[in-house]
Amino acid sequence: MSTDNDKAIEEGSEGESEAASNSQTPSTMESLSRYLLDALSLAEDTTQILEEVSFEGVAKYITSGKCQNIITMVGAGISTSAGIPDFRSPGTGLYDNLQQYNLPHPQAIFMIDFFKENPKPFFVLAKELYPGSFKPTPCHYFIKMLNDKGLLLRHYTQNIDTLERVSGLPEDKIVEAHGTFHTSHCMECGKVYSLSWMKEKIFADEIPHCEEADCGGVIKPDIVFFGESLPQRFAECASLDFKKCDLLIILGTSLVVQPFASLAHRVSASTPRLYINLEKCDSSDMLMAMLFGGGFTFDAENNTRDVFKKAMCDEGCYELAQLLGWGDELQSLVKKEHERIDQLKTASMSGDGSLSDSSVVATRQRDVQQGTGASVSTTETHQGTEKSVDSNASPRQTETVIKES
Ligand SMILES: [Zn+2]
Fold it and tell me: Which of 25, 71, 80, 283 falls between 20 and 30 A from 141, CA-CA?
């Protein structure tokens, strides 16, 4: 789609192998100590910014004019009301359909080594969960509203469902930390394939192969598998954004996947953090909390900034919108956009009755000003074995990632 994007992808794949071979280089230690110093100096200023440390207090702060740079961090919980299950978690029922493929364990579907040997189970699951068959949720539109009102600095998502793009959030405002289905590439030659091309293969129950002469490599959507590098844009944006952040809003994630979860600790020690989720994260990143003083302090006596709102994401966003005086606006935006998507789907219903829903995003992309995106300089890795401390940006750095479950 965009050449910037394609370039980033190509550079990303180069970075992967280099990062993998350099995981123990001195630069990792160097960056860790730099991060430690950063974290310690930030920890000094704990001035209370919120008039009142509460959900209402956060709303007041947003309307005060002092809060110009909001960062949102989200996970699967913001897409569940769209009908997309948290399919990285076992027990959703999705994995049961894959018994016939003899997976060694459910997460193997998202392990790059397993995929290289046997991509079939992934594509079976991809068909079932194909992005584009779903509509963005009120929560997605709330985030878009933050942007429309000039308050959103950046949106960090762990989701690969592309619903942020469908909602109309500009590409340059989105960091897809775990990649996206939006583009795919050949694992052999790197050739980039579009969402619509990939969709055709997935729905034909084919394992997609490269069409370049003499290649024939398997085509993989650009989502980050365990064992693969995070997009370089992740580290690049994070290192610039979080020091500017006036308010961090965390939605629908239990904050267990690293390095994503550690982003919450990269804001300054005084920056208010609103966490909307059904369950409080156990704030068990104890190592992180001890080292960097960044643990959540929802229930602490000296809490000056952390607010937990126990709610479904949509419900929490509607409530916040109400407090901000945007309640009706959000409701009508959701209604209008859902109708628009329905109309587009009807209009593009193809002969065989399947939906050509990539047109939803394609139409959107024309409306959206193409962002330049950040230039690339670092690489982070998503792995499935052990959780590690987030060592902050250094060129060609590697990070280890886990989904705890
Ligand atoms: Zn190829």
Answer: 283
